[in-house]
UniProtKB/TrEMBL annotation:
Record carries keyword Hydrolase: yes
Glycosyl hydrolase family 95 N-terminal domain sequence ranges: 46-316
Name of this chain's protein: Glycoside hydrolase family 95 protein
One GO MF term: hydrolase activity
Keywords: Hydrolase, Signal
Domain Alpha fucosidase A-like C-terminal: 737-801
Coiled coil regions, renumbered to chain: none
Pfam families, per the entry: Glyco_hyd_65N_2, Glyco_hydro_95_C, Glyco_hydro_95_cat
Annotated PROSITE patterns: TAT
Span of domain Glycosyl hydrolase family 95 catalytic: 341-735
Taxonomy of the source species: Bacteria, Pseudomonadati, Pseudomonadota, Alphaproteobacteria, Micropepsales
Organism superkingdom: Bacteria
Signal peptide boundaries: 1-30
Amino acid sequence: MTKACGRTSIRRRTFLAGTGASLLAGSATASSVRPAAKSKNAGLALWYDRPAERWVEALPVGNGRVAAMVFGRVAQERLTLNEGTLWAGSPYDPVNPDALAALPEVRRLIAEERFKDAMDLASKTMMAKPLSQMPYGTAGDVLLDFVGHSFAGGYRRSLDLSEAVAQTAFRANGGTITREVFASEPDQVIVVRLTATGGAKLAFDVGYRHPKKAEYDWRPKDGIVTREKTDPVDWNFREDLDRAGRPSDLHVAPDGAKSLLITGRNIESAGIPAGLQYAVRIAAQGDGRIEAIGDVLSVRGARAVTLVIAAATSFVSPARVDADPVAPVRQRTNAALTKRYAALRRDHIAAHRRLFDRFSITLGKPSTEAVPTDQRIVRDGESLAALYVQYARYLMISSSRGTGQPANLQGIWNDGLNPPWGSKYTINANTQMNYWPVDPANLAECYEPLIRMVEELAVSGAHTAKVMYGARGWVAHHNTDLWRASAPIDGPYWGMWPMGAAWLCTALWDHYDYTRDPALLKRLYPLMKGASLFFVDALVEDPKGRGLVTSPSISPENAHHPDVTICAGPAMDRQILRDLFAATLEAHALSKDPDTGFATVLADKGARLPKDRIGAQGQLQEWLDDWDVLAPEQQHRHVSHLYGVFPSTQINVRDTPDLIAAAKVTLNKRGDLSTGWATAWRICLWARMGEGERAYSVLKGLLSPLRSYPNLFDAHPPFQIDGNFGGSTGIIEMIVQSWGGEVRILPALPKVWADGRIEGLRVRGGAELSLAWQNGELSSLTVKGPPSSEIKIRYRDTLETLRLDSAGKAVWS
């Protein structure tokens, strides 16, 4: 950097760089980043020197619709299967018809500060029927039981992130046994390739175990959720052999000479009957003798075998479950077996890399110690930061893609019929957090399943708005499921929060802000208008004259007095509505909506929302009244009222320093370490406030055995994937931020990352950055953006504007 007029300045030069511009500091030579080679992320892997004993040690593969967890066991390989639409229940309407009549009385009780009475009445009259939603579940286990394995050593299992291939290799029976597993998006199957070299041959049986209930590790938040195993490993343990106790409607039978067909149904839950059929087909090809015998595939005397596994359900839409699941699994497995294994693998890797290789990241000095990933977590987890970002990108590609469902509370992976919190879509924080890294990490396509979910949820949400609130538009509360239920669940303590639709819409608007895609705007505006219309009708006057408020509502899952959450107008509601109304008005103008009356009303409603408040302790108030000191949980996991800091930009270091100071008081009181996802949110908040060392300190807690399982899944505990996605977002926020019409370079860089590089990072406005830094100083910056656009770049105390003309030339001024 050169000095100009007493301030740091980016050298003002113009470079031609395709459709963008390259800005280099000091005397460095101008050049653009070269197109990435196919292998630019080669070597990125999780690896281990022992098999997985627990599900949270297994390695995930997925293609956005079907997925598996790979255990890498020697004597018996276990693949836990998932299909994204295999949820419990069937289409149902949970809306409580008594809600509308009770609503005025609930509001009156809240206005009189009779909060416990309001909660009791809401519990009786306003909650969903049934009170819980449907859980996501596993599609069962494929078990490969090996005959006569004599393990000899050399064990290694790994997950190559750049290839999306899980591999297990070891010496046995005088040779080497190698297994590769991947979930192919082009062929829509899970592929398992087994080979034997030297004196070894393959002899195994392939069977299926029906879905069952699982046990989860619910350790206290301060307990260690992983451990280093010091006792000898029994490489040939077969603890998963049992296939007994099948449901009566499960059928496993040969489907031709070299395949098995499994058919079954989902489960009933909370009184909602089972309504989905599902099918799994396992087909085999290879040398040796392969035949279906009863309920297993028998392989003997083989050197190379390819298994292809397909899964499907009868799900069509949240209102229809009449598809045939058998035909697609037969078609997909048969089609896959017409291709050689090398072609299956090549096509899979190419499709994966089209997304994965857009982005690369290097932070600090790479670890030179060759130790397994689980040991790195224990010894020095923060050295995994760059790998953690890429792992999150891998998990997103694997769990939210194409025509599949969006990433749920566990992405797409699940090992039982009773997952924690139903593995639903928790839309008071967790679902939105799942998608925080998608745009900056250059994975815009992965948003598509969430957009479709919101479009479907808007249909059920309109019914809920009309029946429960007598309002136009649409509403959703704090959870939804495959069936797009939108009524409040679990009880008013958790569920009486009407902001789910609004926050989903502001998240989708952020996605639009990164893409600026007119076709996307056309899809989003009706959703945003509908969500805004609900609050045009549902907002009420605060009895103390402070403006328009939501009532009834809560500040998600946090009590302001013992056992009482219900209230009117909490800070998070007001912040979300400010974002929703402002974004809807902008979308209204861009869409040229002739409904000018709607815009006038919405602007008026937005102007009457109470502003954020600073309490007597100097904290950002969570509620309209200064109740923060009375809250029973002073270190509550949720930091809902800091939504305005992140993911929103309403409270920021440039425009609202007093509110930022208050937010820091709040965050210090809440503490650094909480559940996995809540710890991840804290990283993002400290980064957004420019506190790089504090953010890094919290990150070290996330990348530790307290908050990361051996396979790097977030240890809530138990597993929730939002910690992975939120933590990776926090890492990116420490390096580049995009808000307030500016791109901020190295705004919260910790000292430990004095050197680093990122390529392919996206920012708002449709631009892409690649940058490098040395000794904490920016050394190169490449910007690509739409022709004839402007991009404001702030580096330290300098703000300058990059203009790209129609020829791709950039002029700094």
